[in-house]
Amino acid sequence: MKPLEKEANWALQKALQDNLITEEDTAVIFQSWNQLEVYLTHLKNSFPGDTLHAIAIKTNPQPKVLKKIIDLGFGLEAASIEEVQLAIDAGAEFSKIIFDSPVKTKREIDFCNQHLPGIRLNVNSLEELKRIPKNPSFTVGIRINPMIETGAPDIYHVSSDESKFGVPIIEKKQIIDAIIRFPVTQLHIHAGSHMSDLGGAIEAVKSLMELAIEANNTLELNGIERKITALDIGGGLSPEILGENQESNMQSYARAIIENCPEIVNFKLLTEFGQWCYFYTGYAYSRVEYSLTRGDKKIIFIHLGADFLMRDAYSKPRGLCFLTFDIKGELKTTTSSLFDIAGPLCFAGDYVTKNQLLQDPEEGDWLGLVNTGSNSIGLWSRHCSRMVPKVLGSNMNANALEVLSERFNPFA
Ligand SMILES: Cc1ncc(COP(=O)(O)O)c(C=O)c1O
C-alpha cells in the first residue's frame, strides 16, 4: 500500500472510535499533516534555500491548512482579494503573500497600498499598471505570457497567443518601456498546470530571466537605480508519488532551472505550486447509501460527487484510488467486481468514476477515496445545495485526529 492508502486505512477506524464521525456525517474529508509536511519539505529542499514558496490557496483554502503552511514557514498565493484575506487570517506576513487576481479592482489595489505594505502584487496586463500608485507600499510584478508549449491540457494551458493571462513576451519593447515608467521590481510567469513538457517549462523560466536581465540593463542605461529583483516562476507541476532513492520531477525541474539559468541566483526566486503539494495528501470517506444493479451495471451511490470532485466528474478522473470499509471501518477484502460510483447530485454526469474494481460495497459500508488533496474542497460546488462535509486533520505518526471544520451549509 502507498503511504496515503495506509493512512486512509488507519484513519476511518480511529475517527469512528474517537466519535468524530456522527450519524449526520454522510461524508468526511481528511487532510494528512504528515504527508503535507513530506511534500512541502521536499519542495523546499529541491530549490535554493532562500526561495519563497507561496502555495496556491485555490488548491485547498481550508483555513487551518493555510495556517499550517504559514507555521511551516511558507507563503501563500492568492487569486482573489478573498484569498488575500484568508492568507492574512492564517497569519501570513504581507511580504509572503502573492496577489495574482486577473481582475483586481481599483479599490482592492488601494486596500493593498493602505493596509498591506510589502504584499507582492502581480499585474495581469500593462493596462493594469496604470492603476498602480506612483510610490506603492507593495511590490509590483508583471505577469508575462511566455508563449511556450508546456504540454498542459487545453483547459489548463495559459501560454497560448490568445491567453487571457499575462503580457505576451513578444511585446518585449512595450514591457521594458513599462518597467522604466512604472515601479516594477518583479516578473512573473505561470505557464500552465499539469505541464508534461518540463523542457518547455524550463524554456519559459529562461525567457523570463532573460527579459529581467535586459530590463535591468535598460534601467541602468537610463540612470534608474530600481531593478527587477524577484522572479516568480508560478506552479504547474503535476502531482507525483515520491520514491525513496530516485530524483523526483520537482528535483529535476529545480536542478534544470539552475543549470540552464545560472544567473537566476542573482534574483529572489518565488514559486506558486498548488496541486503538486496537495494531491497525495488528502483523502475522504463517504457512506455507501445504496448498492444496486441497473441492467448489466452495478452502481453504488455515495455522498461525494461532482460537488467535491468537480474536475474528475466534469473533465476526467485524476487518479483517485478507492478502498471499501465495513460499517466499523475495517478494510474489506472480499471478492471484487466492477462498479460505477455515482455521486449524490441530480444530473446524469455525476459519477466519480465508472467500471471501478471495488470490494463489493453494500449499504452501510464506507467508500474511501484516496488522493483527493487538491482542487476538491476548494472547488466545492453548491449544486443541489448540499452541506459541505466535516474536515479532519490527521497525524498518523502521533496517532491523532482533530476537527478542522464542522459540516456546514454553504448558503447559511
Ligand atoms: C497564477 C497561478 N499560480 C499558481 C497556480 C497553481 O497551479 P498548480 O496547481 O498547477 O501548481 C495557478 C493555478 O491555476 C495559477 O493560476
Keywords:
TIM Barrel; Lyase, Ornithine Decarboxylase, Chain A, domain 1; eight-stranded parallel β-barrel; binds pyridoxal-5'-phosphate; single chain
**What is the chains' assembly state?**
single chain
Estimate nothing, just give the exact number of structural domains. 2
Average pLDDT confidence is: 95
| Chemical compounds bound to the protein | pyridoxal-5'-phosphate
Q: What profile does the largest beta sheet have?
A: 9 strands, mixed
CATH topology assignment of the largest domain: TIM Barrel
Number of strands: 18
Q: What does this entry look like structurally?
A:
With 412 residues, this protein is α/β, with parallel strands linked by helices. The protein has 2 domains: 3-31 and 279-405, Lyase, Ornithine Decarboxylase, Chain A, domain 1; 101-271, Alpha-Beta Barrel (TIM Barrel). Helices cover 28% and strands 24% of the residues. It has helices at residues 3-17, 33-46, 63-71, 81-89, 106-115, 126-129, 172-181, 198-221, 249-260, 275-278, 310-314; strands spanning 27-32, 52-56, 75-78, 97-99, 120-123, 139-145, 167-168, 184-188, 230-232, 268-271, 282-294, 297-302, 321-325, 337-342, 351-358, 366-370, 390-395, 400-405. Strand 5, helix 6 and strand 6 (139-145) form a beta-alpha-beta unit. The protein is elongated and about 75 Å long. 44% of the residues are buried. Pyridoxal-5'-phosphate (PLP) is lined by residues 56, 59, 77, 100, 190, 193, 234-236, 272-276.
